[in-house]
Design goal:
The complex is a heterotrimer of chains A (356), B (338) and C (287).
Chain A (H helix, E strand, L loop, with lengths): L10 E16 L4 E17 L3 E5 L6 H8 L7 E8 L2 E4 L8 H7 E4 L13 H11 L5 H14 L16 H13 L5 E5 L7 H18 L2 E5 L3 H7 L2 E6 L2 E7 H6 L4 H9 L49 E2 L7 E2 L27
Parallel strand pairs in A: 3-8, 3-9, 6-7, 7-8
Antiparallel strand pairs in A: 1-2, 1-4, 4-5, 9-10, 10-12, 11-12
Chain B lengths: L5 E14 L2 E14 L3 E5 L6 H8 L7 E12 L2 E4 L8 H6 L4 E4 L3 H4 L6 H12 L4 H14 L5 H4 L9 H13 L5 E5 L7 H18 L2 E6 L2 H7 L2 E6 L2 E7 H6 L4 H9 L48 E5 L2 E3 L8 E3 L3
Helix pairs in contact in B: 4-5, 4-7, 7-8
Chain C lengths: L10 H11 L1 H18 L1 H4 L31 H37 L1 H16 L2 H12 L3 H12 L1 H14 L3 H8 L4 H9 L4 H24 L11 H6 L4 H6 L2 H28 L4
Helix pairs in contact in C: 1-14, 2-4, 2-14, 4-5, 4-7, 4-8, 4-11, 6-7, 8-11, 11-14
Classes of the chains: A alpha/beta (356), B alpha/beta (338), C mainly alpha (287).
């Protein structure tokens, strides 16, 4: 898949046809009786210095996406090509020892700042071991790095001798950010970094992340379910539904002109904290279908108000729009099929809910 | 604008919690009213006491919590019940709870008993308050499910909770709360555990109940977006006090308490340009155990004056029905009883 | 925030404070420690040799000279209890600690790697658990014979399952914790994650399992020796002292011969249980 290149930027991470299936085991002998298709054919090039937002509802595969490109989960198939200074290398075939240099360059921030710090270790110890693993042999040097990292997130360096239980949620998340950054990575994958925080604290963390990106030239993959937060943080946004990218565009045009019916509904469902904006709300019927038994064709057709006959038969491909080559959408409304005069089905069979 | 009749009148409610050897003041004088056909949104961050407020009203405080002052008046067809005087689990309170006041909790997954059919769980509340035959009860539950948009209600009442999705479970919770046709519905973060598209479904449903059946709704939430879209009146809570209260138009057009203002500006809004920096509230959300004199928000506030530290901050009415607890509005009419 | 006073904190100090506040646990710790020390320094506490036969003082009831009386051979019961404690406590503590270590290692492996290893180990532990415990012990005694070290061996063979299951369950939940994922994201090795990051957080269930096992083994040793199958009769242990009180005649007429050792066993077992419960609360890092 070709993507228009951001001006003056280099590709950092090329993801091609990434798949992650989890077996569904059942019975005494734990036989595989099916597959949860958490990621299907996700392709994306991440450019150095940009922020790619990933949105979708629970179960859409966004967290799996983050963990798979971080190689915390091994992909079922697909290519992950990371651009090291000495040239691009395929990650899926690397040994765990070789992966260390990748882990030095790509770090992750997790959702829950409470369980992300080992409760029985001082903050110092949570930083110390990663630093040692990544080749900072000198204890004095390590201590200096820890102090600098904590200062960078506006925390007192003396806090390193404390235990996690002494900190509030916002402080802990800042500690986690400092820890991810202490080995000087190029890219950070952020999995719902503010959703566990109070509203008044979220802004502190989001601003901090933006400042750090500017200072350190970081590349972010920003995964969240909150569209407003993702839109605020991202240059480009990728919308996922049932393990697939349904739409991808730069964040302003995604907001201004969402193309995929799912994106449209998702955007309209976000409550706006203003009483002057009265927007048209599209209420989606029913629930997200089970990822084990996905609907045929386009997985969204069971809830889509524009569903056509072809939608339950053919799977739409993620293709660029004719008039906007950086705006990708996977929907028959915009593909070649829509020109064949297919009319939307008016009486749409609703997907039976809750029937796993 | 004609407003609905007052159905719940809470005055100067105080609640204490005993934690270890400490006696913590969690609610420090909370007053509000809920009216028919209106939604009152109580907004605040974790630990501000918004859930404790409704649990106090429902008299469902845990063992270490107790009411220490104030009045809870519930008006029902010309009769007034003084809920604060009733035995929490006495006959009278039980006849109000569930029958006159329905409640929806945050986590629909944890609020349903996994070993009973959902229909039976709804029936339990219904049969506790009405003498009905089993057949009649079932008919009413099926009707209720249908009106809440649960497809195939006759079949679904025989299902178990695990066969329902999150959004559907929350509908069942609403069915339990609404089956006795209560006048007041209290929803404690009803959509926090749900996805946005499901949240939109549930909020639309609750809006319908309010409008079409003239119910009073109290919505507890931390999401300013939900408040803007569903509330008629808003109460902003911070550290066990209502710091600002007023009609939704007032709160959003003229937010007056520094906390409300900061809260509104610190959340990213979908249509904002993204280069704009978010405003932050410095410091951390305080723990309810902290004890401060004066304004609880003072040490995070950009407008702090020495006065903020002295004694009790009164509430001022800056416009009809718009109340702010902040010394910046000393010129306005003081409300000593708030 | 930065100006906030930096207070020194240490996990050990915090734990100690919590322990002191828990009165029952503190009592358990004090009593069991006292009893252990009394046994260790038995020769300073009592002037009598526990196995010295004194025909002039046969079956005397308690007096100031013999606090717990003497047995039918004129041996001082108090010194027997003190010296007997040495062996009984040694056997049960070493047996329980060994069982816990084995359980911890196996539990860690099963919990971390899961899959086949887990399945095999869990099934094995189930076989051990479902087999009547006393029967298993008796069979093993028959095989390996009597003796202190043999008893320790038997105890740890029959006692690793509880700590194993506790550690395994703890691992299953702890390995899902985000901080484990953080370690993986940093490329920290499996062994380091298991032993430096997860295992320390399983100390509290281990503590409980170990203390419960200690109490259990004290009782088992007493029961085995009472049946004459434990430690050889010549070695004084709490069980062997009770062994002397096997006949109805003794139970009826010489109450001090069974009451005092019985009481000592009960007090020690209770104290160990209280201490274990208290330690669990104290060591739980989540509190």
């Amino acid at each position: 898949m070709s993507e228009a290149k951001l001006s003056g930027s280099q590709p950092l991470f090329e993801i091609k046809n990434l798949k992650k299936y989890y077996p569904v085991l059942s019975g005494f002998l734990r036989k595989t009786t099916g597959w949860v298709k958490a990621l299907e054919d996700v392709s994306l090039t991440i450019w150095a210095g940009e922020t790619v937002g990933v949105v979708g509802e629970s179960g859409c595969g966004k967290t799996t996406f983050g963990k798979t490109i971080m190689l915390l989960q091994h992909p079922t198939s697909g290519e992950l090509r990371f651009h090291f200074p000495e040239g691009p290398r395929e990650l899926t075939t690397m040994s765990s020892k070789d992966l260390l240099s990748f882990r030095r360059r790509v770090q992750m921030i997790f959702q829950d700042p409470f369980s992300a710090l080992n409760p029985s270790k001082r903050i110092f110890d949570s930083f110390d071991e990663p630093l040692r693993v990544h080749g900072h042999g000198n204890p004095k040097e390590r201590k200096d790095i820890i102090a600098q990292s904590l200062e960078m997130v506006n925390l007192n360096p003396d806090y390193m001798y404390r235990y996690p239980h002494e900190f509030s949620g916002g402080q802990r998340q800042r500690i986690c950010i400092a820890r991810a950054l202490c080995i000087d990575p190029e890219m950070v994958i952020c999995d719902e970094p503010v959703s566990a925080l109070d509203v008044s604290i979220q802004a502190q963390v989001l601003n901090l992340m933006k400042d750090l990106q500017r200072q350190l030239g970081l590349t972010y993959v920003f995964i969240a379910h909150d569209l407003s937060v993702v839109q605020y943080m991202s240059d480009r946004i990728m919308v996922m539904y049932l393990g697939k990218i349904v739409e991808m565009a730069d964040s302003l045009s995604l907001y201004d002109a969402p193309k995929h019916p799912y994106t449209e509904a998702l955007l309209s469902a976000v409550p706006i904290p203003s009483i002057d904006v009265k927007k048209k709300r599209i209420i989606l019927e029913g629930d997200v279908p089970s990822p084990i038994h996905k609907p045929s064709g386009c997985s969204f057709h069971t809830r889509c108000r524009y569903a056509m006959e072809i939608c339950s038969v053919n799977e739409p491909k993620l293709v660029p729009l004719a008039d906007s080559p950086t705006h990708f959408v996977a929907c028959h409304l915009y593909g070649d099929d829509s020109k064949n005069g297919v009319t939307p089905i008016l009486t749409m069979e609703k997907h039976r809910e809750g029937n796993l | 604008m004609g407003r609905g009749e007052i159905i719940l009148d809470v005055r100067n409610l105080r609640t204490h919690f005993r934690v270890g050897s400490d006696d913590l003041s969690i609610l420090r004088g909370v007053s509000f009213t809920a009216r028919q056909g209106e939604t009152l949104a109580i907004v605040g961050e974790s630990g501000c006491g918004k859930s404790v407020t409704v649990h106090s009203v429902m008299r469902l405080l845990p063992k270490n919590g107790r009411l220490t002052g104030g009045q809870i008046l519930f008006h029902d067809n010309g009769r007034t019940f003084e809920l604060h005087k009733l035995e929490p689990f006495g006959k009278e309170m039980r006849s109000i709870r569930g029958r006159k006041i329905g409640m929806i909790f945050q986590d629909p997954m944890a609020s349903l008993n996994p070993v009973y059919k959902v229909g039976d769980q709804v029936a339990e509340n219904l049969l506790q308050h009405f003498k009905l035959t089993k057949h009649e009860a079932q008919r009413r539950i099926v009707e209720m499910f249908a009106s809440l948009g649960i497809p195939e209600p006759e079949r679904r009442i025989l299902d178990y909770p695990h066969q329902f999705s999150g959004g559907m479970k929350q509908r069942v919770m609403i069915a339990i709360a609404m089956i006795c046709n209560p006048d007041l519905l209290i929803a404690d973060e009803p959509t926090t555990a749900l996805d946005v598209t499901i949240q939109a479904q549930i909020m639309e449903l609750m809006g319908k109940l309010k409008k079409e059946q003239n119910k009073a709704v109290i919505l507890i939430t931390h999401n300013m977006g939900l408040v803007a879209e569903t509330a008629d009146e808003v109460a902003v809570m911070y550290m066990g006090r209502i710091v600002e209260r007023g009609l939704v138009e007032r709160i959003f057009h003229n937010p007056s308490h520094p906390y409300t203002r900061a809260l509104l500006r610190s959340v990213p809004v979908l249509d904002h340009g993204k280069t704009e920096r978010l405003e932050t509230i410095r410091g951390a959300t305080p723990s309810p155990a902290e004890c401060v004199t004066g304004c609880e928000f003072a040490n995070r506030c950009d407008f702090m004056t020495p006065k903020c530290r002295s004694g009790i901050i009164s509430a001022y009415e800056i416009e009809n029905g718009h109340l702010v607890r902040c010394v910046l509005f000393e010129g306005a009419k003081e409300l000593p009883n708030e | 925030m930065a100006q906030q006073k930096i207070k020194k904190s240490s996990l050990a100090l915090r734990s100690w404070k919590k322990l002191v506040r828990n009165k029952l646990a503190m009592l358990g710790v004090i009593v069991s420690t006292l009893m252990i020390f009394a046994s260790i320094f038995a020769n300073f506490i009592t002037p009598y040799d526990p196995s010295k036969i004194d025909f002039t003082n046969m079956a005397k009831p308690p007096s100031w000279e013999h606090l717990m009386g003497t047995d039918k051979m004129g041996r001082d019961v108090f010194s027997q209890v003190l010296y007997g404690g040495r062996v009984s406590i040694y056997v049960s503590v070493v047996g329980a600690v060994l069982g816990s270590i084995i359980g911890m290692i196996l539990g860690g492996l099963a919990g971390w790697f899961g899959g086949k290893i887990d399945l095999i180990l869990v099934r094995t532990s189930e076989v051990f658990l479902t087999f009547p415990n006393m029967m298993l012990v008796l069979i093993l005694v028959a095989f390996v014979g009597q003796g202190i070290n043999n008893l320790i061996f038997i105890f740890f063979i029959t006692g690793w399952m509880t700590p194993f299951r506790m550690v395994r369950n703890e691992f299953l939940s702890l390995r899902e914790e985000t901080y484990v994922e953080v370690c993986k994201a940093f490329g920290i090795s499996n062994l380091s994650i298991i032993f430096r990051h997860i295992l320390p957080n399983t100390t509290s269930p281990i503590m409980v399992a170990t203390t419960i096992n200690i109490a259990n083994y004290i009782l088992q040793e007493a029961a085995l020796s009472f049946l004459g199958l434990g430690v050889p009769v010549t070695v004084p242990t709490w069980g062997n002292i009770m062994n002397a009180a096997k006949s109805i005649e003794v139970i009826r007429n010489y109450w001090w011969l069974w009451l005092f050792p019985g009481l000592v066993i009960s007090v020690f077992v209770l104290a160990a249980n209280f201490a274990g419960d208290g330690l669990r609360d104290v060591l739980d890092p989540r509190q």
